[in-house]
Design brief:
heterodimer, A: 6-stranded mixed sheet, about 20% strand, B: 6-stranded antiparallel sheet, about 15% helix, Ras-related protein Rab-3 (chain A), prenylation (chain A), transport (chain A)
Chain lengths: ~240, ~550
Amino acid sequence: MRWRSPRRCPRTGTGSGPCRRSMASATDSRYGQKESSDQNFDYMFKILIIGNSSVGKTSFLFRYADDSFTPAFVSTVGIDFKVKTIYRNDKRIKLQIWDTAGQERYRTITTAYYRGAMGFILMYDITNEESFNAVQDWSTQIKTYSWDNAQVLLVGNKCDMEDERVVSSEKGRQLAEHLGFEFFEASAKDNINVKQTFERLVDIICEKMSESLDAADPAVTGAKQGPQLTDQQAPPHQDCAC
Amino acid sequence: FPQREPRAGWRLRASPGWRPARCRPPRAAALLDLSFLTLAERRAIAEVLRRDAQLRRRDEGRVRRLRKSVSDPARLKSLTGDWFCDVRARRHQQPLGSELVRASIRRRRPRGTQGTGTGTAGGGCGAGSAQGPLSASPPACLPDQPCDVSPPAAALEVTPLSQSLREPDIPPGQQDIPLQPGNSGQGGGQCHGAPGTPRARQTSPSRVSPQDVPGSQLSASSSVSSLSSSTVRDTGDGMGRAAARGGPDAVLPPPQLSSSLVSLYSEGELGRVAVRGGVQVALRYEPAAKELHVHVLRLPRWHRWHPRAAAALGAPRLPLHPLLSSVGLQTDLQGRTLNLSVWHHDSLGRNLFLGEVEIALGAWDWANTRPEWFDLQPRTPVSPGDLASHGHLNLALKFIPAGSEGAGLPPTGELHIWVKDARSLAPLRRGTVDAFVQCYVLPDDSKASRQKTRVVKRSLNPLFNHTMVYDGFQAKDLAEACAEVTLWHREAFAKRPLGGIRLSLGTGEGSGTRGLFIPLSVLARGRPLRGHRDIPSVGTACGRVLGAAKR
């Protein structure tokens, strides 16, 4: 048995389909040509953004991941995510940020993602009282569906719309304190506190990671390689700058 | 054969089907009711799931490399994300979002024409045979590839035994592959669960269903006892569900689907376990339906082993060929031998042979439908000479790295699969075979990956002489690729499988893809292709037989 010309189809007679069929497209998607560069990170964190419909979760994510903003409202279908790699605490951290639909209709889907999330951004709209009142419920959802140590940042979005504000910063801070969350006011539109929110959440997750490793094996404390965040400063100015 | 070996030291071997034990979601989650979604919504979500799966697959690659290179356990835990899996696992025993949603979306999809699957994704492994796969894909089809034709009376297929592992609608993470990728010999370590209740056992008879076409032959029989399996986490629970699901019909493939068993060795393991004990079997033949019912009632309780039974109808006194399954049954059961083998299905999806029984059906008293005990016997290895009468597929593979022919040619790596011919095929019915060969390079199971030869009509020794060329490969892709070559009989409106093989480097990597490298539990693994002696350099080519290679 001897190979014939490798470049030509040695098929005899009629056949079905072309002899050569490119695998290129499939290869691209399956094997990921960019894999090596894509995999150039230390940690992968999964973050979930939740909150009422139209509070600006998707805009917030787009601002952070793509630095883009569009005022048009397009309701998220179920779930979506974006990926962003950041450099933080001398580590490259790849974030998979899940954006959820706020609509009740998709609740079965979105809650399924709670348990895979290391941290949460719980968002309300400072111009929408109802969305603020729902924070307590969202918080309960997190406690129900997530892991024990879920880290949550409460974010009051749309702080650029000061004229229409119905939820004061103070109210937001108090509620956050009550729930044990850290608090930011932010604006996806004006790019206020967006990056800070995510970075703070990443820091908190890093802390939790270190804690869990310490708890799991106290013996390794000395050799621990996880990020040491003990000298982490307190969160910077958290309120909306405007 | 290949003028250029892909790389010195590469070895083709069968792929273990487990994924790295990382964040593997346990089973037993109720699926979501997503029936409210519109088609467009479903599509949108499916696209997100696809992107997520891709991302995860890549991350698994990264984690694999980490596991090889990082020795500090704490550091490894943080880098891989295992720390989170650990803390999460304290609270949740459910699959991750995408897997659950994916399973749930699939669940709502209309199924194939062969009936409806029942049960939930959380069904136990043993109970898995009651689930979708039996109906979702006609057993003749390789479940991890699109099966566009559903032969109404497939003669050869996989057995339910393997189907529980091949649930196409359950995301890979949910397949019941246990966490410990431990030594196969220890697979039974988790199996304190009793192998099911008697009732559960009795709901899992198997039957041989010959085609209803007069004069057609039954090819082979199959039998599976969905006794407990080492891979079920909550054995008791799973079995309870199996029992609750009730009637045999829930467990059985639809009668028109004859379940032929491909017999199998797990060769390396053969003889590792001392054969002892017996098996209680009841046989009943229904002449009207031309069905042989094999009820496996009881298997001894092996310490540490999770037994499963598989049966095949062999030709008279012919040892069952591991590659193959189906023997044309020209007459009736007279002169046939029922081979029933008992296997331990271990945590890696491998099968350990626990013993077998051969029952000469010619001498069987068919008035006796009571259960009888048979002592298990050791199996004598099949010598290649016994296989002389079986069909052969003659093929060769080579990989041409990009640029290896000079002048930048070929521009990308190419995998060539030369399907030369097949010999000594046995017809499914009387007469001859209109055979063709089709090929996929998994994990791409899309139609774009499918290539076929022409149909060679009315020949038991069809000459194809066809080279399938797949380009766009890098050498590293090969580690995750698996060439699947299957032989089919073309009929007017359908195609019927004659057999097939899978060839891969067998790292098992890339198994994040649905159905990829799932251990075909009944099939031989990691063994040279018997009956394929014409393949050059067969020493480097081992593979698992997929369906059945025709004798």
